[in-house]
Amino acid sequence: MWQGLQSITDYKKKNSPVADPDVLLPDKLNNFFARFEDNTVPLTRPATKTCGLSFTAANVSKTFKRVNPRKAAGPDGVLRACADQLAGVFTDIFNQSLSQSAVPTCFKRTTMVPVPKKAKVTELNDYRPVALTSVIMKCFERLVKDHITSTLPDTLDPLQFAYSPNRSTDDAIAITLHTALTHLDKRNTYVRMLFIDYSSAFNAIVPSKLVIKLETLGLDPALCNWVLEFLTGRPQLVRVGNNISTPLILNTGAPQWCVLSPLLYSLLTHDCVAMHASNSIIKFADDTTVVGLITNNNETAYREEVRALGVWCQENNLTLNVNKTKEMIVDFRKQKREQPPIHIDGTVVEKLKSFKFLGLHITDKLKWSTHTDSVVKNAQKRLFNLRRLKKFALSPKTLTNFYRCTIESILSGCITTWYGNCSAHNRKALERLVRSSGANYLPSRTSTPPDVTGRPKRS
């Protein structure tokens, strides 16, 4: 259905895999993606007892049946259709891999497909590496991930809102705003928010440092050795059109599109927590925000926190991108003074009046006009597609689904954190857009779309 809708609306993907005639580009990109490689780190560990983890054929078969055949090239359909027949063979392979703490090289091979981050590419950093890995290995990783997750406490990293069930960007934003607003209710207070940007955080993971933390968390040492083996000795190549780079063997980093990588990254950063009670470090994947609650202009704890974070990054091989790291100061006091800037590695961090935080435009006044204007503008662009679909006399159900997926989803994004504090003017703009969608573009025999809060509108 969606392919037909894309054809009718002349939908064109902005960023598609690049097809550059430069035959040297794949090698350039491969070397660039591997720029964090550190050949000085130890790649082996003392032998331990056999890993006690093993899987049954039923576990493997169930995992094979969960494979989505639309997501990646490979024998996905075969795995699903013949899951019960193949499960026994791969169960033996997986269990042998765990018992010997060895991962077959063919399972670790990664093909990187560069996708432009923006329309006009000017440098290698403008490409986002999309990793294509073995479907079999993804199933294996999913089994290992489920085991690791089951052994960890739910409260391990309460301020990491990614990669956890029933947690989302809404929660991260709500906690950030609640922390700030609660503090601002007190006398002579203000809040400094430092929005950290890391340079290719997943690619900078040092496996030997990671497995030490995994052992500290109580994971089986043999399983830790398996993780080390999984992350090291990885053949990587880059494919651009019909051109393929020379393979490189990587011993640093975790492929960002692997099943295990997000969990391993969150475990690596679980000890990145605030030193002082007046600060909070809120994380969503590698998006990290330091919230400093300042009282009586005393910023000592906040500045110590920023310095400590810099030291932690050096110890864990993560590079702070100071040029993309931004700060915002929220100060509602009538008599306020200019606050001295924050320095990271000798560079001044830029202070902003507005910042796009996890998809939400936050201003230093905590007003929502900037965000609602952006939301309305983006939603209006999609009304054109809805108008074209109506001209083709599509069914009411299809039009309503299109509205909910492409327009209502934009209007209601993180709505619990901002709609309640919108001005009357902003609410009217949102309601006008919703009414316009129902009156002009959705068929009259369908029910009027709900307002942006999700409540059905009165007739």
Automatic annotation (TrEMBL):
Residues 96-362 form the Reverse transcriptase domain. Coiled coil: none annotated. It comes from the Eukaryota. InterPro entries: AlkB_hom8_N, DNA/RNA_pol_sf, RT_dom. Residues 440-450 have a biased composition (Polar residues). One of its GO terms (molecular function) is methyltransferase activity. This is Reverse transcriptase domain-containing protein.
